[in-house]
Design a protein that fits this description.
mainly alpha; elongated; 3 helices; single chain
């Protein structure tokens, strides 16, 4: 797995996949929040928190992937 992820093309595609997955999750959470939270202030806070969480998880995944790919 380390050798496979260490290849530049595979590493790049995995980063694109991770970016798309977390972007998709952020958009899906936003739709759920907009549908089920009724207060405007609550909506804004929850949307910002969910987008921040998705960004933080993407950064953690990026760091982890980079450590795996460049360790060998």
């Amino acid at each position: 797995m380390i050798l496979w992820l260490g290849q530049p093309f595979t590493y790049g595609l995995m980063l694109v996949l991770l970016g798309a997955a977390f972007w998709h999750a952020a958009l899906g959470l936003q739709v759920v929040i907009e549908d089920y939270v009724h207060g405007e202030a609550g909506k804004l806070v929850l949307i910002l928190l969910s987008k921040g969480a998705c960004l933080g998880l993407f950064v953690a995944a990026f760091v982890s992937l980079s450590k795996i790919a460049f360790s060998g």
